[in-house]
Amino acid sequence: DRSFDLHYRFVDEGRLRPALAVGLRDLAGTGIYSSEYLVASKTFGDRLRVTGGIGWGRLAGRGNFTNPLVALDERFRVRPAQAGGQGGTFSAKQWFRGPAALFAGVEYQAGRKTEIAPIRPPRPSKTEPPGAPAPQAGAHNGPPTPHQSRCCART
Asked: 135 and 124 in contact (C-beta within 8 Å)?
């Protein structure tokens, strides 16, 4: 399964304002790892960064709730099933649809090494097909951050 991800930081961090970003993970894959998110991150001092966001798809595992975008349109309530197959097609009808879940993380730099502690790491959702692979360490496992290019989340 190959993956194509898109991450766009649309607001840079300011003195009082957090950085804000939106992202799509596995947007042209088989759908097993696909997810979407909105994330905010704020740095305090030189060593502490706090991140929080809302995710859909793979990021909306256990502890999810009704999608708040339902207030805009009822079509956001249910995430359509992915056709599966070999991937390579965009499934825009799934994006930001279905249940949502919150995630958060704290990043602290002690010396030269950065320690990352996800507060609510993503877990497989109850709606995944039987036999779907469990989350693996790497690009699809930690909470996203607006500073994606500078840090990688670990669990």
From this structure: yes
DSSP 89: S
Q: What is the pTM of this model?
A: 0.73
Non-local CB neighbours of 50 within 8 Å, separated by 6+ positions: 41, 42, 44, 104, 105, 106, 107
Tokens of 67: 């999608």
Please, which pLDDT band fits residue 99 given cuts at 50, 70 and 90? Answer: very high
Q: What is the pLDDT of residue 2?
A: 66
Closest CA to 146 of 15, 22, 48, 63: 22
Exposed (0-12), middle (13-18) or buried (19+): which is 17, by Cβ within 10 Å? exposed
Q: What is the DSSP string of 4-46?
A: --EEEEEE---SSSPEEEEEEESTTS-SSS-EEEEEEEEEETT
